[in-house]
Design a protein that fits this description.
single chain; 214 residues; 6-stranded mixed beta sheet; 7 helices
Length: 214
């Protein structure tokens, strides 16, 4: 039994939202907005949705949580403990500067480095990758990585926003480079890629000085 990934096309924001299916279990990743497509999916899956996994706390990845939870009362909202405050803090979420109304969300599960979430016949591993935000994480299951805004196809997340840190992002990239084997990478924006492709061609993987990030 292998995981299945479904992309919900961005509407309003450019952020990607995904569904992960494995056996009878479902997780949603980065619910930035409620869309008709996502609502239909949530209504269909219902109690099969175990988790709403958030890679970090920025508005374009969290603003759909409150509304989609109406269809998924048993789904657990998951976020790293260092970004949990951003679900209620308009400065950390960037709502303060963008003007969006922010619902006040309380996470059900606060994760940290190395935590494992039971899922299907496997488990989802949490890899803490600070830099874009202090609590940025990647979720890893089998040969799949949801990289959030830490790693994109050919690029990385910016570090000039609240709790961002270039040195931490470079350290996170160095840890990602040490992962063995190949992975399909599903980022928070733009197209999917693979770890082998990024190791070979992503400019930021070749940096040795954090000051060169931006």
């Amino acid at each position: 039994m292998e995981p299945k990934v479904i992309l919900f096309e961005p509407v309003g924001f450019s952020a990607n939202c995904y569904a992960l299916e494995l056996g009878n279990d479902v997780a949603l990743i980065a619910v930035g907005a409620e869309t008709a497509e996502l609502v239909r999916y949530a209504e269909q899956k219902g109690d099969k949705v175990k988790y709403i996994l958030q890679t970090h706390c920025h508005y374009d990845h969290i603003l759909g949580i409150e509304s989609i939870k109406k269809y998924l009362p048993s789904a657990k909202v998951v976020i790293h403990s260092l970004d949990a405050e951003g679900l209620k803090n308009t400065e950390l979420s960037l709502c303060e500067r963008t003007g969006f109304r922010q619902p006040m969300i309380s996470p059900d599960i606060e994760v940290s480095e190395g935590d494992k979430l039971p899922f299907g016949n496997s488990e989802i591993l949490v890899m803490h990758t600070p830099g874009h935000t202090a609590g940025s994480v990647m979720y890893i299951i089998k040969d799949i990585i949801f990289s959030g805004d830490t790693l994109f196809a050919g690029c990385v997340g910016r570090t000039d926003l609240p709790s961002g840190n270039s040195r931490q992002l470079l350290d996170s990239l160095n840890r990602i480079k040490e992962l063995t084997g190949d992975y399909k990478i599903f980022p928070g924006h733009e197209n999917a890629t693979t770890l082998s492709r990024e190791k070979e061609s992503n400019y930021f993987f070749g940096l040795s000085d954090y000051e060169d990030l931006y």
